Each structure stands twice: as structure tokens, then as C-alpha cells.
């Protein structure tokens, strides 16, 4: 069974999630934006073995510490989609713009595409390409656990911004309604910021995509 623990990091309080297979204690970390000492302390506290980095997209608060973590721990970087290459290239500038610690460019070990899967221990998650917030944004979905890690696509009561370079409002709405909603109303999602919610709750009440 897939388990997870979410740790808000960086001044943007980005939800970094440590996910692991309960059988093997093998773990991946989703969106290590910063505060690596805190994240590594949590990995140790949980008693899991960190083996991979998974990225939903390459904004600084989600990917800022990726290169350092990969280098220091010898971890592969999985994702996002190639559409975010320009955001990866701009990580040093992003960090300077928002007052983050120095951030490094990197080359993912593996790019992700719609319909791919990622595996940690005995747990396999589906990958959906959900552009709109960024062109290369992806989402990780565990049908078994009924959990989706959606980055900045959807929030409790809101949706991702589309006014950054490469953003597209209609693409975001289409991604939510055509790629998230079919996962099921019962699916609980872990957003990039703020509290968890369910797709059913957002379909009913979210002012941006409710009723869709």
C-alpha cells in the first residue's frame, strides 16, 4: 500500500510529499522545492529509504532543491514533461527573483508523458500530463490508494495560475475536467499548496471548475 507524508517547504509553503511503499519502505519525494535538512530529517524519522525524485513541474518552489538533492543523495530525477525545460533552465533566475537560496539547472533522468507510470517499491502510480499552469506539468495518481498528487493544477477552492510564461487557462481547465475528474469523485488530491480536498468536492463547489 502506498503511504505519504506531506511537508510544507520554502516561504511559499509548498507541499512536498514523501511517498513510500509500506511493504518495502522504498520512497520517492515529490517536488523538493527547498528546506532539504527538514526533508531529510523527515525521511529518517519515517524510516524509509529515499530512492527517487518525482517532479510535477519546474517552478522554483517545487524544483528549487532538486539538483542539490539528486547530487548529494545520488537520486534519479523523474519528470516533469519536456515542456518545462525552459523553467528548469531558468531556475537560477527564478531563485534570485523570489529571494530563494541559489538553485541549479538539471537534466531529468527521465522525462514523463501522459500515460506513463512511475513505481516505488511495489506501488505503481499513473502519470497524466496536465498543462496549463506550466506546459510540462504532470500529475501522479495512485488508483489503489485513491490519491493524486496534482502540484499546482488544482487547489481546494481554486485552480493554478496561468499568467506565468507558458501558462494557458483553457489548457488548465481542459486538464482538470478531462484528466482529473475521470479519476473519480472519491479521489483525494494533495495540491501544491494548502489543504487536501477531493475531486468530487471541487466538482461541486470550486468556483473555477464547479459544475464541470
TrEMBL record:
Instruction: Tell me the SUPFAM superfamilies matching this sequence.
Output: Metallo-hydrolase/oxidoreductase
Tell me where in this chain the Metallo-beta-lactamase domain is found: 13-193
Cofactor(s) needed for function: Zn(2+)
**Highest taxon in the source lineage:** Bacteria
- Which keywords label this protein? Hydrolase, Metal-binding, Zinc
A Pfam family per the record:
Lactamase_B
Q: Which SMART domains match?
A: Lactamase_B
Region (Disordered): which ranges? 193-212
GO MF annotations in UniProt: hydrolase activity; metal ion binding
Please give the name of this protein.
Answer: Metallo-beta-lactamase domain-containing protein
Question: Which species does this protein come from?
Answer: Caldimonas caldifontis
